[in-house]
Design brief:
Layout: E1 9-16, H1 21-34, E2 39-42, E3 46-48, E4 59-67, H2 74-87, E5 102-108, E6 113-114, E7 119-120, H3 129-138, H4 151-156, E8 164-166
Length: 169
């Protein structure tokens, strides 16, 4: 196993399963740029089946890698992500309901947080194939800051068998 090392990047997972899914992802990326988040790389887009939820349309998911050079503090970043979701019509009346956009703050460098407002790393990303597949594309050797396993290791040992396939429009 690799020794844990400090990550110099942060990662956000994007998902959409309502309306123009690909357009919503693009608008989410634009909103992140407009909020001052320097996106350095984007994964491919994957079509994924919904998990842990009621029956609903398939998602498009991807991961954005953010350069750490000028990132705001994690709490400010989380607030910005929530504002982008709101601006794009995300509502939260029902947990795990279909959504125009979902921006999950996965990792902020190798930092950890556990407050009412923010938990880092994201508490469930290591259990979700729709997050780990695009994250492994960008950072296969990235070490989870609390589990001390690489993204590749997490993906290989995953119990989630949901379908995740590269999206081809």
């Amino acid at each position: 196993m690799l020794e844990p090392k400090a990550s110099t990047h942060s990662y956000v997972s994007l998902g959409s399963n309502l309306g123009d899914r690909a357009g919503n992802l693009l608008l989410g990326i634009r909103g992140m740029f407009d909020a001052g988040m320097g996106i350095s790389r984007l994964s491919n887009i994957y079509e994924t089946e919904p998990v842990e939820t009621l029956p609903q349309p398939a998602f498009l998911n991807m991961v954005a890698e953010l350069s750490s050079n000028a990132l705001p503090p994690p709490e400010q970043m989380m607030a910005s992500l929530l504002r982008v979701e709101y601006a794009l019509g995300r509502t939260r009346e029902t947990a795990m309901a279909p959504r125009t956009i979902d921006l999950d703050f996965l990792l902020y460098r190798a930092e950890t947080r556990n407050t009412e407002f923010l938990t880092l790393p994201h508490p469930r990303f290591h259990l979700r194939r729709f997050v780990l597949t695009p994250l492994a594309e960008l950072a296969p050797r990235l070490v989870h800051p609390t589990l001390n396993l690489t993204v590749t290791d997490l993906l290989q040992n995953l119990e989630d068998r949901s379908e995740v396939k590269r999206w081809r429009p």
